[in-house]
Write a structure and sequence with these properties.
heterodimer, A: 45% helix, globular, B: 7-stranded mixed sheet, 6-stranded mixed sheet, 17 helices
Chain lengths: 480, 485
């Protein structure tokens, strides 16, 4: 078994090496740099999405059980919007920007010129298996890069359909799909890329960055974390409960990097909030959520077991106030609320990534902030409060990739906002122009004219010259 | 000696700085502005001490110290002080149709506790310029100056605590052992200036904790020059670019010249006469040339010169004196492209000149090498300028000069590929130590019930229209009409 695996690994590595060389050749030819090529590819991608909606939706349903409209809204429409925005704005994004030149550097002009980083590797996760692979790819293409997309092997039907469709629509000299699991990913990561874009978890994120370090490859790492929600008594409880329930369970059944992970609720409203959440869960998913198509399912047996272990921890199990039902065969876990578990139980230590919602009662903002600061910086942080001072405190005293005030998850739809983590939730960002930036190098170009320079700027530097230059430098600085 | 200093307890140090950072002190505009002014004061008041240190470490002249290091630090401080409020202020962004009504803001916040590891060749500039960015961004900082410039390291260790907030900004001296101990810790940002080999070590260490990095590395910065330029002006600029900044020991130093063949004889003779004009017949007597930093590098450089295939190509200079760590400004003509001197970044006062047919051959040679920190192009031909800008890749570029793009604070200064990751100078310095946090503010006045499950056909139409920015469709859906697909 081991010998076969090793042979496969060697073969995989050889194939991948050749692939990277081929893509480097394409980049060197200059074709991906042209505006024409980029627009062509983006339009082709748009066409791919529109013409193959049904089979794409079917593939996601097979792998994840998600209803079609959910995939349309969270993945296909997202991609269509991304493509259209890139097509519309590309010329502007590509244009060199003039910047001011200090008097010291006159006569001359200075420009910042974006150029493609080169050959990029995009590694996609399983939870939004189409968009979290193709959206970064849109960034790579708009920046003029060649790219390899490695879809998640945990969603094999989606992986297969992407491997089938992309070559039919896109320039195969520049854009390729490589399928496979750990051996092929390891082989890919051993190559020298000009950029690696990884969406996934912290553990693998570190492996990716360590691999990138060998070649000084810049990385964007979109990871996760425990995204907290703080809620106090100044809000409309019903609306808040709806927004929280949607954020937690409507998108991939809690298996999303920006899903609310746990709630910190001001004690005065805790009982009412728990009641309202329970009502809302029933409103959304019915009395028996195991029959609700909206919820999709847990992605596989591994994750199912991981999540049920969290629930079965004795100090957690006794705190279940809603849900808790599970069915291993259908990979179903009910939307579950656990109330006031101790802060050191497993469900409060790692990112849950599932339909379990711990609710912790707190006295107020101070206690909430302390709990949040004891955990690694999350990808998202949510504050439900109409009190501006409270909002400000969370914004300034905590750190997170992104923040939603009186909302969950939706900020991801605002393409003008950079989407990315900080600390353990990631590095770099994308969406909108930030996707273009993620795959670009901004080259500073300074044009000087050939008129003769003042003699004083050349050696030998007598003290007279020194003083002259010095006064020129100092005077110049005063003007800045 | 920097390497004799006892090892600092890195975990304890980091703990102290984290406590300071958590207190929130470094976040206030007042603190940041205060620290920047303190830095300004230090550099102004201690100029003599700084010059002494740089003379000891590198034999730099007062002029070079001021023009190439101090003036830049003062410049950076003043710009940061002036622009701080603006850089710190949140920026509004356009919202999405799907989120109406709402406000979208990007709010910069400090990354936290930063480690700045600086290099020996501009030991003041490369420690303090990143410090300006870190402090402006509101970070706590540890500076690890290079032990290869020990007098400067000692200066920083002595004077920074005297002027700046000791509980937030610290200098740690030492060698490999010390830096290894520091790198074991979890930093919120690592800013490194140095060579690619150590850059990889830095990034690998950072990967253990998912620490974002800025790596300012080097590379072989080529000059391409054709016959369309004024030979005297070009020669002066090339010479100053090569030898005035640390005697060729700079990440931005022109590494080698690629010269259009018809221009070679004229350029060489002008270079020679101009070099004599600048540095005298015997450059050993010139006060305007720094020396090689230490014996190691001296041996490395003389070994490059003594390679037989290289030695016979020396057309100017070549003299050396180990005791004073002096190597004459040296020109070489058409060494083989596989000679040792063409294999690595020279980082010294040797300038190989390679004859090329034209820009295509130059681009060919350049493209075979890793991307450098800078490419310099001397030509008056706009088409050639364009060609070089678009067909090569480098950290930065200068047309008709060398090195001086460094003076433009509005140009992001950094490498690409082997020459580095990230950039700084001006606002880019502030950004290098900041996290731009996205915030979406919403209220409770408007609710779109269509967004919640269970999803009826009508609800789906509304959402589809919202997400597809389809205003008309949205209106029709809300009014209960069917839109033509």
């Amino acid at each position: 078994m081991a010998i076969i695996e090793e042979e496969n690994l060697v073969a995989a590595a050889a194939g991948v090496e050749q692939l990277v060389r081929d893509l480097q050749r394409t980049v060197r030819s200059g074709i991906t740099k042209t505006e024409k090529w980029r627009i062509q590819q983006l339009k082709a991608l748009l066409k791919l999405i529109v013409e193959n909606q049904d089979s794409l939706l079917q593939a996601v349903f097979t792998d994840l059980g998600k209803p079609a409209h959910q995939v349309v809204f969270t993945e296909l429409l997202t991609l269509a919007t991304s493509c259209k925005l890139a097509i519309k704005e590309l010329k502007q994004w590509m244009a060199p920007k003039e910047v001011p030149v200090p008097p010291l550097a006159l006569p001359g002009t200075a420009f910042v010129v974006p150029e493609p980083l080169g050959v990029a590797l995009v590694i996609a996760p399983w939870n939004f298996p189409i968009s979290l692979g193709v959206d970064p790819l849109i960034g790579a293409i708009s920046a003029g890069c060649a790219a390899v997309l490695k879809p998640s092997e945990i969603t094999p039907t989606v992986s297969s359909i992407l491997a089938d469709l992309l070559p039919k629509y896109l320039d195969t000299d520049a854009i390729r799909v490589v399928e496979g699991g750990i051996p092929i990913t390891t082989a890919l990561l051993a190559q020298k890329w000009d950029k690696i874009f990884y969406t996934g978890n912290y553990t693998v994120g570190r492996i990716v960055m360590a691999a990138a370090a060998k070649h000084l490859t810049p990385v964007t790492l979109e990871l996760g974390g425990k995204s907290p929600v703080y809620i106090d008594d100044s809000v409309d409880l019903k609306v808040s409960a709806r927004r929280i329930c949607q954020g937690k369970w409507s998108f991939s059944d809690g298996q999303a990097c920006v899903a609310p992970d746990y709630l910190l609720v001001q004690e005065s409203i805790a009982p009412k909030l728990v009641e309202t959440l329970k009502e809302t869960i029933v409103e959304f998913f019915g009395e028996d959520p195991s029959t609700c198509a909206e919820l999709g399912r847990i992605v596989n047996a591994n994750h199912f077991r991981r999540l049920t272990r969290l629930l079965d921890d004795p100090r957690t199990a006794e705190k279940i106030v809603h849900g808790g039902e599970r069915n291993e065969q259908s990979l179903f876990i009910a939307p579950t609320i656990v109330l006031d578990v101790p802060l050191d139980v497993p469900v409060m230590l790692d990112e849950i990534f599932g339909p379990i919602l711990p609710i912790i009662t707190v006295k107020g903002v101070d206690e909430a902030i302390n709990i949040i600061l004891d955990l690694p910086k999350p990808l998202a942080l949510y504050v439900f409060s109409t009190n501006k001072a409270v909002q400000e405190r969370f914004v300034t005293e905590t750190s997170a990739g992104t923040v939603g005030i009186n909302e969950t998850v939706l900020h991801v739809a605002v393409l003008g906002l950079p989407f990315g983590g900080v600390g353990e939730s990631g590095m770099g960002a994308y969406h909108g122009k930030h996707s273009f930036d993620a795959f670009s190098h901004y080259k500073g170009v300074y044009h000087k004219r050939m008129e003769a320079d003042a003699d004083g700027t050349f050696p030998p530097y007598t003290s007279a010259r020194n003083n002259l230059i010095r006064s020129f430098l100092t005077e110049d600085l005063e003007e800045i | 000696m920097a390497t004799d200093v006892p090892l600092v307890d890195a975990a304890q140090l980091l703990g102290e700085l984290r406590r300071t950072f958590s207190s929130g002190r470094t976040k206030s505009e007042k603190w940041r502005s205060q620290q920047l002014r303190a830095l300004l004061k230090m550099v102004t008041e201690q100029e003599k001490e700084i010059c002494k240190a740089l003379t000891l470490d590198l034999g730099k002249s007062e002029y070079e110290t001021y023009a190439c290091e101090l003036a830049m630090v003062l410049d950076s401080c003043k710009l940061a002080i002036k622009r701080l409020k603006k850089w710190m202020s949140p920026e509004k962004r356009p919202i999405a149709v799907a989120t109406i009504p709402s406000t979208a803001i990007v709010h910069p916040e400090p990354l936290g506790v930063a480690l700045v590891v600086s290099a020996w060749n501009f030991p003041i500039l490369l420690a303090l310029d990143p410090l300006v960015g870190a402090v402006a961004a509101g970070c706590a900082v540890v500076i690890k100056p290079s032990e290869i410039a020990p007098a400067t390291s000692a200066f920083l260790a002595k004077f920074i605590p005297m002027y700046m907030d000791k509980e937030a900004i610290r200098v740690v001296e030492g060698g490999v052992q010390q830096i290894t101990a520091l790198l074991d810790q979890k930093w919120d940002k690592i800013f490194f200036t140095g060579n690619a080999k150590v850059g990889r070590i830095m990034m690998a260490a950072a990967a253990k904790h998912l620490t974002p990095v800025t790596l300012e590395l080097g590379g072989k910065c080529p000059i391409y020059i054709d016959s369309t330029v004024d030979v005297k002006v070009a020669a002066k600029r090339i010479i100053v670019g090569k030898w005035t900044c640390s005697d060729g020991q700079a990440c931005l130093s022109p590494n080698h010249l690629l010269v259009e063949e018809c221009f070679v004889p004229k350029l060489i003779s002008t270079l020679k006469t101009t070099m004599v004009e600048f540095y005298g017949e015997d450059p050993r007597t010139s006060k305007d040339l720094a020396h090689i930093v230490n014996k190691n590098h001296f041996k490395r450089l003389t070994a490059l010169l003594d390679d037989p295939a290289t030695a016979e190509k020396i057309i100017h200079g070549g003299e050396r004196d180990e005791k004073s760590l002096y190597i004459a400004p040296t020109l070489l003509l058409d060494v083989p492209l596989d000679a040792p001197i063409m294999n690595e970044e020279i980082f010294g006062p040797l300038l190989p000149i390679i004859t090329v047919k034209g820009p295509d051959e130059a681009i060919d040679i350049i493209s075979k090498e890793p991307k450098p920190l800078a490419i310099y192009v001397f030509t008056d031909n706009k088409a050639v300028q364009e060609k070089m800008v678009s067909e090569t890749s480098s950290g930065g570029m200068v047309i008709n000069d060398a090195v001086v793009h460094f003076l433009c604070p509005h140009l992001p200064f950094g490498g690409v590929g082997e020459s580095g990751i990230g950039a700084y100078h001006g606002k880019a310095s502030f950004d290098a130590f900041s996290h731009q946090k996205s915030i979406l503010y919403r209220g409770f006045t408007v609710e779109v019930y269509a967004r919640y499950p269970p999803y009826t056909t009508h609800k789906l139409k509304v959402i589809r229209a919202l997400l597809g920015r389809d205003f008309l469709g949205l209106l029709l859906a809300l009014l209960g009409f069917r839109r033509q697909e």
